[in-house]
Specification:
The protein is built from 8 helices and no strands. By secondary structure, it is mostly helical. Among the domains are: 64 residues; 84 residues, no CATH class. It is flat, with a radius of gyration of 33 Å. This is Phage protein. It comes from Cronobacter sakazakii (strain ATCC BAA-894).
Length: 246
């Protein structure tokens, strides 16, 4: 962080010096072109500083959220092993109970709770088990009850806004590049004679594909599913069969 801040300060000083040099060169005969060049370079460097600062901030946010996710993944892996151990111990205890060996059943059950995050009060009774159980089923945000897979994912996504924004940016770029790919392939096929159509129609279709990128940001996810295209193609194929065109 300190190194980045230092580099920013040095670059800002360089930009400042560049603007000062522009003023100095502007007062010298025959140096107007040089002054204009330095001014453009200083302006571009100033823009670069802002871009780098924003990208650095984004990377720092992603690193922090990655650490958060790594910690959560490690905790989840640990929990899954504890759950596996608990289920095995419970199964073993049931066998002991069925065979009348209560002492062994108790030993198996106690072994499954060695790493439990909650402790039972020494004076608890059977009647007090349900209230104790309910009091333990509380998350960090104070909510109670079972957390579904969908709710868990939603809660995690809310904690990693920078990662979500980065993934949206990557997805958006990939979709745009996909449109460019389709337009290129379509025009290449037309140019090679594989598509029999007029130059105007080929150009219109290519432009339609390319301009679709302007609407991708606000388009619902369903617009990127090929189901609609498959349905229309199936209808066209059926019409061609009926008309004898296939």
């Amino acid at each position: 962080m300190e190194e980045h801040a230092l580099n920013y300060e040095k670059t800002k000083e360089l930009v400042k010096s560049g603007h000062q040099l522009v003023v100095l060169l502007g007062t010298q005969n025959g140096m107007h072109e040089a002054a204009s060049l330095v001014q453009r370079m200083a302006g571009q460097l100033d823009v670069l500083i802002a871009v780098l600062r924003e990208k650095t901030k984004q990377c720092e946010q992603l690193a922090a959220e990655c650490a958060y996710l790594m910690n959560g993944a490690a905790a989840e892996l640990n929990t899954s092993w504890m759950l596996h151990k608990t289920m095995l111990g419970a199964q073993a205890a049931l066998v002991c109970i069925v065979q009348g060996d209560i002492k062994s059943a108790r030993d198996w059950l106690e072994g499954t709770t060695d790493e439990a995050g909650a402790e039972l009060p020494n004076d608890i009774t059977v009647a007090g088990l349900q209230p104790w159980f309910d009091s333990q089923m509380v998350s960090n945000d104070g909510k109670t009850g079972f957390l579904t897979r969908e709710e868990a994912e939603k809660a995690i996504r809310a904690e990693i806004p920078a990662t979500e924004a980065f993934l949206r940016e990557v997805k958006s770029q990939a979709r745009q590049e996909g449109a460019y790919f389709v337009a290129n392939r379509m025009l290449a096929a037309w140019d090679a004679g594989f598509i029999e159509d007029t130059a105007k129609n080929a150009a219109d279709i290519a432009r339609m594909i390319l301009t679709s990128t302007e609407f991708m940001a606000d388009a619902p996810d369903g617009d990127f599913d090929r189901a609609f295209a498959d349905s229309v193609l199936a209808d066209i194929a059926a019409q061609l069969r009926v008309g004898g065109g296939a």
